[in-house]
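Internal tracking record. Fields below are filled automatically when a chain is submitted to the structure queue. Please do not edit lines marked as system-generated. If the sequence contains nonstandard residues, flag them in the REMARKS field before resubmitting.
Queue: standard
Priority: normal
Entity type: single polypeptide chain
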Amino acid sequence: MFNLHQLHTASGMIVLLAFILKVGIQIYLDNSLGKAKTWQSILFFPLPFMTPYRGKVSAENHEMKNLCNLMFYTCVVALSINLVVGILEYQTK
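SYSTEM-GENERATED OUTPUT FOLLOWS
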């Protein structure tokens, strides 16, 4: 069905896509709260983007906050799978 190389590549692409979506949603949520970040702060201080979103949001943005956190947890799970599959792939060579 799928070999280890394909699973490693797919999980890596999921990590990248989930992280890009999470950062985009978090920037949107921060802007809606009036806490706009410059590109310099995003580039030099990326740690807030590597954690679940904990800011208080309005009722209309609550689903966006849940989606942002879902993308974070998706990224963590896909990264874990990527590491395990990468180690397995390395050992089979």
